[in-house]
Amino acid sequence: MISNVLMRNQIEFLQENYRLAKHKSSDQTVLPSEDLMNGSGVEHFINRQLTPLLKAPNGMVTASQFSKRYAFLVTAPFFASLTLFDQILNVQPKNTSVQPDPEKGFFLPRLSLKDEGTTEAGMDRKETIHKALEMVFKNHLKPVWETLNKVTCVPMPVLWENTAVYFYWLYETNFYSHELGLPANKVEVDFQLILDAPGECFGESENPLKKFHHDKQQLLKNDPPIRVRKTCCFYYEVNEERNFCKTCPKCLTGFTDQSTDESK
Fold first, then answer.
1. What is the DSSP string of 27-64?
2. DSSP letter at 23?
3. Are 50 and 66 in contact (CB under 8 A)?
4. What is the number of domains present in the chain?
5. Distance separating alpha carbons of residues 190 and 240, to the nearest angstrom
């Protein structure tokens, strides 16, 4: 594999579409990813900073909501760069940090990279995918999820499904919205390679993304089919209307208009 850097227009594409930080903030305001693997760092950030901001009832609910934001920050620019540009971003924990948005702070943060250098994808796509998954999941997200679980008792299945939901959205919907002249089946091929990857790539006994991948259901006659979650992410705990997500399993026991699409 060859060391490389994304072209300026590609960097700007990731900044505009996938919350890659445009400007570096001061060290006093960013949250290093490595701190999210430390119990005391997580306890301070989740319970003292983010819980009041989200007006969440407890740290477990906050941890679930944060995990959705963090999963997007780490995986969205990473997979976009891999599948759309054949470049592998360095998302090792020591190279990444959570940067508050200039307007919305940690409510809707961005991902900051110390080094924006990339590695060119190899000729063996399967091998490239497996090594990439180890970096983003086994070495990064899994340790963060384990720390959140230990500190707040948020269930691991919730954290992994929060991650999987964004992964499906990227590969089933979002990547197709960009007119980049990709080979017809490139997105589909990468999607399947990731779903077929062994659990070891994630530091798990089974692939946690595939675990939550099942057929979509049509719950309302005039609505498109949706993939109902297996776990509840507790979103209803942090919105004043106490609406459920449209994909919440609780909606199966009487699907009503008390549901909403959570913003990506």
1. TTT-EEGGGGGSHHHHHIIIIIIIHHHHT-SSHHHHHH
2. S
3. yes
4. 2
5. 39
User: Taking the CA atoms of the chain, what radius of gyration do you get in angstroms?
Assistant: 18
Phi-psi region of 2 (alpha: psi -120 to 50; beta: other; left: phi over 0): beta
pLDDT, tens only, 113-156: 999 889 999 999 999 999 999 999 999 999 999 999 999 999 99
d(CA 169, CA 244): 18
CB within 8 Å of 154: residues ≥ 6 apart: 59, 60, 63, 64, 67, 148
Which residues does the chain have with pLDDT short of 50?
1-2, 255-264
Its domain, for residue 242, covers: 214-264
CA dist 125 and 117 (Å) reads 20
Nearest to 160 by CA among 70, 262, 47: 70
Residue with tokens 């498109």: 224
Shared-domain flag, residues 188 and 252: no
- Can you tell me the distance from the alpha carbon of 86 to that of 24, in angstroms, rounded to the nearest whole number? 25
Residues 40 and 57 in one domain: yes
Q: What angle do CA 35, 39, 42 make, to 5 degrees?
A: 55
Listing from the earlier edge strand, what are the strands of the sheet with 3-5?
A: 3-5, 117-120, 87-89
- Could you report the per-residue pLDDT of 69-89, keeping only the tens digit for each? 999 999 999 999 999 999 999
**CA pair distance 92, 89, nearest whole angstrom:** 9
